[in-house]
TrEMBL record:
It comes from Accumulibacter regalis. This is Aminotransferase class I and II. One of its GO terms (molecular function) is pyridoxal phosphate binding. One of its GO terms (cellular component) is cytoplasm. The keyword Signal does not apply. Pfam families: Aminotran_1_2. Gene3D superfamilies: Aspartate Aminotransferase, domain 1 (3.90.1150.10), Type I PLP-dependent aspartate aminotransferase-like (Major domain) (3.40.640.10). Residues 33-381 form the Aminotransferase class I/classII large domain. Its cofactor is pyridoxal 5'-phosphate.
Amino acid sequence: MHKSSPVIDSKLPRVGTTIFTVMSKLAADCGAINLSQGFPDFQADPSLFDATWRAMRAGRNQYPPLAGVPELRQAIADKVASLYNAVYDVESEITVTAGATQAVFTAIAAFVRQDDEVIVFEPVYDSYVPAIETVGGRAVYARLGYPGYRPDWQQVRALISPRTRMIIINSPHNPTGSLLGADDLEGLAELTRGTDIVILSDEVYEHIVYDGAQHQSVAGHPELAARSIVVSSFGKTYHITGWKVGYVLGPAELMAEFRKVHQFNVFTVNTPCQLGIAEYMGDTSRHLGLAAFYEEKREFFRDQLGASRFELLPCSGTYFQLARYSAISDLPDREFACWLAREVGVAVIPVSAFYRDGQDDRVVRFCFAKQEATLAAAGERLRRV
């Protein structure tokens, strides 16, 4: 036992344990079905493991280049060109990262300086604001309109100031499942035209878009692409969230700054996993078929809740389903989520956790990236509420 510890003026005085950790622990403690944290409970394709194992056995186990193995960067470039008609230079405009969270933090650290402002949209994914505050920036909050969770670009216009350094967008959006359309990208381009504002576009669910819609990537909008760092995730696409491998796209000038930080907070990413993913990407059906795969799960889960008292909100992308519970309880959403885990045996995320002021619309988030048996068991419990 140390006699005394240094007194630290916390950089993040309002940050505690994340709601995801809290609810997953509660699920484990209560034996509840965990539909809170966003990860699959099913296995990835064994051929991906085989490809990674072959790379290990071939001796590809030492440091890769800082930006990622050439094979993976080329596979990413080919995918982006095919999907978005966008050309990114393999050497200078694509970097492999240790997951999307690292990519987001590194981009913020590279471009946001003391007292710079960063516009975020509430409900906001929980890693953005702590990263901004860690580097001395200040988050400025726009709000997606409930219940459709659409941005108001006139509101954003009013928030832009001479200190605005970055705008962070997220589509398909976690936690709401809403999408940005082509008109939204045009609105964003118009607002940032003639400025030095950097766009950080979190597109980790880019392949999980429903009902025949097309993902509108910033990479496919030349004017925005010129000022944007685009983030994606192999964890979400190939059901390997624990591998923590993602990537970023950006014009060479921005990527050079991104890599200055990347080389010192991560340097490089697991070599054989990169090579396994690169080989696996050769079959494009593996990412092109993802929307249909998850749309089937979305429909199965929505059917499970159809006879319940939960009111399902629209879900246009991601593997998250929001639901209003006001017909069941008038408890605040955090209390309701704890009650649901303890008494009903299903763990969810209260959406107020994604608001700075704890705005509570009596809405919770379910993750349906689960086996049908898991979703059916949860549905049986939820229909009894």
